[in-house]
Amino acid sequence: MSVRVPAATASRLKITEIFLSVQGESSSVGWPTVFVRLTGCPLRCHYCDTAYAFHGGQWMSLDEIVAEVGRLGARHVCVTGGEPLAQKNCLPLLTRLCDAGHRVSLETSGAIDIAGVDPRVVRVLDIKTPASGEVSRNLWSNLELLQPHDEIKFVLCDRADYEWARACLAEHGLVDRCAVLFSPSQGQIEPAQLVDWILADRVPVRFQLQLHKVLWGNAPGR
């Protein structure tokens, strides 16, 4: 016997926070952006800076979320976590936000299938490196689904991570799929050191710092 799920339950998500800031990463860096941070994540990366989103949060309906995003008044919207795709109702939320006229990006670990994500969304796929502690969770089949407007991100903790990421570029032809970003893990690689490696090896990737951390440190909601 199937169990009928009440509509109010079926169309809601657990939300840690919704806030207005500037985008600190990706090709949209610097744009005023509304961030929708979903609660929960099945991964435990060693360098995670949003562990406060693992638990807690409050239930909100899709209507309430879309209304709050609209109230904050920015065209760019970033759906993040935690791992936003761990909640199945993330997919209809992404479509609703696109339908409302927003430029929507999704920050995902790449451990969950992205096939159902609305094609209008910019999918920022975070490939987990060995030093993250979660390299085994990479769902490599996701790479075949990426479009030119999507992005791949590597957060690098040490020289071994850097060399591993370079090997991934070659093995999977990543730079021919979409933009690739190399980012230093805070407190583990000096940013200038990573830039020196990239330039010395002529690696065709985009270096990025987390602008929001430069401005406000690790403050939640910024």
Automatic annotation (TrEMBL):
Molecular function via GO: 4 iron, 4 sulfur cluster binding; carbon-nitrogen lyase activity; magnesium ion binding; S-adenosyl-L-methionine binding
Binding site for [4Fe-4S] cluster: C41, C45, C48
GO terms, biological process: tRNA queuosine(34) biosynthetic process
Database matches in InterPro entries: 7-CO-7-deazaguanine_synth-like, Aldolase_TIM, rSAM, rSAM_QueE_gams, rSAM_sf
Reactions that this protein is recorded to catalyse: 6-carboxy-5,6,7,8-tetrahydropterin + H(+) = 7-carboxy-7-carbaguanine + NH4(+)
Cofactor binding: number and manner: Binds 1 S-adenosyl-L-methionine per subunit.
Binding site for substrate: V22, Q23, G24, R37, T80
Pfam families: Radical_SAM (PF04055)
Superkingdom assignment: Bacteria
Binding residues for Mg(2+): T50
Keywords of the record: 4Fe-4S, Iron, Iron-sulfur, Lyase, Magnesium, Metal-binding, Queuosine biosynthesis, S-adenosyl-L-methionine
EC number annotated for this UniProt entry: 4.3.99.3
Cofactor annotation: S-adenosyl-L-methionine; [4Fe-4S] cluster; Mg(2+)
Radical SAM core domain span: 28-218
Keyword S-adenosyl-L-methionine: yes
The family this protein is said to belong to: Belongs to the radical SAM superfamily. 7-carboxy-7-deazaguanine synthase family.
Record function comment: Catalyzes the complex heterocyclic radical-mediated conversion of 6-carboxy-5,6,7,8-tetrahydropterin (CPH4) to 7-carboxy-7-deazaguanine (CDG), a step common to the biosynthetic pathways of all 7-deazapurine-containing compounds.
Name of this protein: 7-carboxy-7-deazaguanine synthase
Organism encoding this protein: Solimonas terrae
Protein's gene: queE
